[in-house]
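Support case: user asked for a sample of complex input and structure output to validate their parser. Sending the pair below.
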Amino acid sequence: MSAVKHTFKAEVNKILDLMVHSLYSNKEIFLRELISNASDAIDKARYEALTNAALAEGGEGWQIELIADKEAGTLTVRDNGIGMSEAEAVEVLGTIAHSGTKEFIKLLESREVENNPELIGQFGVGFYSAFMVADKVRVITRKAGAAADAAVIWESESDGTYTIEKTTKEGKGTDIVLTLKEDEKQFLEEYELRRVVKQYSDFIEYPVVMDVTRSKPDPEDKEKTITETEQETLNSRKAIWLKSRDEISAEEYNEFYKHVSHDFSDPAKVIHYRAEGTTEFSALLYLPKKRPYDIFYQDYKIGPALYVRRVQIMDHCEEMIPSYLRFVRGVVECADLPLNVSREILQHNKAVGVIKKNVTKKVLDTLAQMKNDEPEVYAEFYAEFGRILKEGIHHDFERRETIADLLLFESTHTKAGETTTLSAYVERMPEEQTEIYYITGGDRGSAEASPYLEVFKDKGIEVLIMMDDFDDIIISGLEAYKEKLFQSAIKGDLDLGEVNKEEQKTEFGDLLELMKEELKDLVADVRISGRLKSSAVCLVAGEHDMDPKMAKMFEAMGQQVPKGQRILEVNPSHDLIARMKQVFAADKESSRLKEYIGLLYDQALLLEGDKPRDPVAFSASIARLMEEGAKK
Ligand code: ADP
């Protein structure tokens, strides 16, 4: 049967192109990627063999073999794992089948990856890294349990196409045969393979073996030497998470992290411990430095890998960690679970509940410690993951105080880009201040320029600046911190003691009534403002209404938002308002006065970053006013 030619999907070509021309200096990691895939394939076969012994195909001698053929110039990575069917080979080696593809292509096009080839690792394109060192890659694979002649050869020279051909293969599993590039032949040398395996794959659970040939004196004739070939295991195979901390170097921790996370950078923090008690388990967990591109996607896989007596049961066990800590990567091993544990069992298993609780506490404690001992490292971490952590306020009622302690916000008293904790804010609060003030908004600049902060600025009162789109929901859920209530600067009636509202009400009451009447279809109330200093008016939401930015976000997502009625606030010390009062006193029915009222409302919309109701009429009014002004 002859080979059938296929063309790669465009995105695969882009990736291949990148690999072939890669400037990445660390090309040897291709071996880590292939060994890691081989190890995953064995994990799968071993797990499935628990319920279908036929898949083990006559033995448990799981292993990964490296075969260096100097004559042919090829390096083969062979495993006896799960293997691939023809359809699977086409599917997984010819496309990039995950939802992040678009982002990845964007990244490729941005050229960012050329300067930071490490980014590639986040996208699970491990297999293609073989093309960094090989002109040609041939994959010979047979699915465990399938007939010997159901094997296939997949082959590509990264020229935009690959071929598929049926073949026969005795053993189950996969051979990846690399025809090495002329200047990458060092990967045929024993010492080099030994070094690379040791460095990157030492903890791999299965033996990585290689035939090693040694010369030794001939026992018959001491003058002569004979050569002897023996299979040697290159990795120590110690499950790193079961070792004690002092046995593990920082490099080993980092390498293992890269193995479990598919991240190329080192982690921000390692959490390694053994829990004793009713449920005993070992956990090796990592906090990453950078947010994975897909962490906000639905199909992002949550949770550490779960091992039971050194068998990997699942690569991501989401029952072990709350989703607001989904950035945590690593391994949990627990002997108290059955080997053939299913998702349903996990959901109701007591030991799992205990582990989850324990792991959650440990991670939160670690974050608290980082925040106190290494504030800069924590701030960097928080910039990447704070938005996710914050979800915990909403979802984990029991721990929301603990999580609140971990939050960071910019404030009117921090420099741009610098943050404060809630507890530091509360400590700075002057005695007479009873509430924690915050403003939500798109960015710092617009928050700071906002009319809503005029009196705060004037009086030097610190306001937290919250820039995440769902901060308002989070803060409403939190309600209070250290018994201080949160108060939005853009919602509700504020009284910072700036104006005597009662006095002003008597002074301006009639004018306010007229405004209310004029704007009755647009606002629920018109009142004297306690927050304005230089602007004449602003619109605010009711105390319990959703914040306008939030409401817009929900509407954009197609959701119904209850329409809270807005309130127009008026600054009594503004000249414009004083002037209106005069016009009002002279002629309550003045049509000019009504026009002013409409204009004020439109101005308030503008100040919020919105459009006036009728831009044409609005500019016509302004033009007329300017003309009048110029005539005077
Ligand atoms: P990832 O491992 O992140 O999924 P890769 O590009 O390294 O990405 O591999 C793509 C897919 O190809 C794997 O998910 C797996 O389905 C398949 N694959 C790769 N190597 C092997 C192997 N040795 N045995 C079985 N399947 C493999």
